[in-house]
Amino acid sequence: MLRSTKFFKRVQVERPNRQSVVTPTDQLVDNVHELAQTILAPAIQQRSKNAVTVDRISVRYYQQIATGRLCSCFKKEYDNPEMHCPVCFGGGRVGGYNVFGTSLTVVDATYPSLTTLNVTMNDEVWPWSFELVEGSLEGYVEAIIDVPSLLDVDVIKLYRTGNYIKVTVRKQSELCWHTLSRSSLLSLAASKEKLVIRVTLSRKCTEDVTPSFTHLYLRYKLITVELYVDMPRPGELRNADNFDLTGLQTTQAFFPATLPRSKVGDIFKDLRNEYFWRITEVTVNNPLGILTSWDVNVRAVESFEIFAQLP
Ligand SMILES: [Zn+2]
Q1: Rounded distance from Cα 74 to ligand 1 centre (Å)
Q2: Ligand 1 centre and the CA of 48: distance in Å?
Q3: pLDDT of 206-228, one tens digit each?
Q4: Which domains does the chain have, with CATH numbers?
């Protein structure tokens, strides 16, 4: 039977202001959480940074590029990039890796809005390469690039074969060409204008083998960042436990929160001995949502692997 509400007297209950009532339980639950979030976790974050700085190994960190232009080495029939491709380093995306603190421009066969004269794209090699058209003594490829606000030019590298290739640069608004170099790029980039890059190929007679190139790799340093890792020293690594089933040397490493992102497939280079390490497993430490450090498993990159060629 349903009870009628008229039999119940409505009583106004004075609710205590929860904010003003202090109980031991509140202290333990609320304050500890707040203390941990505002003081403890940031302290762990800072201590991790400090600890790594004491016994520091300076590294360059390469974050694998997951989106962007599909490399010309990508073979649709196999749904796979070429594992030894110097454009994407086997990852399928142009550039392959972004070095932490830098920005990258790669002028290759997939670069948008290229202008060419007497130059053709050879699509029977992977990655595709630029070559002189038959019967031509000279030709060029031009690309328009946007250079970001940079601190310095980090890398300029043309992947080429043959001797008669030169690279020049000019502001889009001017017609005066300069040889591409760190200093010319720095001074032209200061104008904040778009720049035109021209790669000129030439040969002395038409019977000569054509010079060719696959891509121009330009890397700009955007921020000054010192990144350190904590990992065993080379002398400490040489025991049987540090090799996996395939015979690759493996170990563990620890990055402080200076590094904002770490993923399986990323690579870092020990700047003291130039060794490359590839990350095979990542554990992020972020108590209460505050990033404090990264624990990673890594394996040594062998000298025959394309990653060992990363600029
Ligand atoms: Zn590729």
Answers
A1: 6
A2: 37
A3: 999 999 999 999 999 999 888 99
A4: 105-221 (2.60.120), 228-309 (2.40.30)
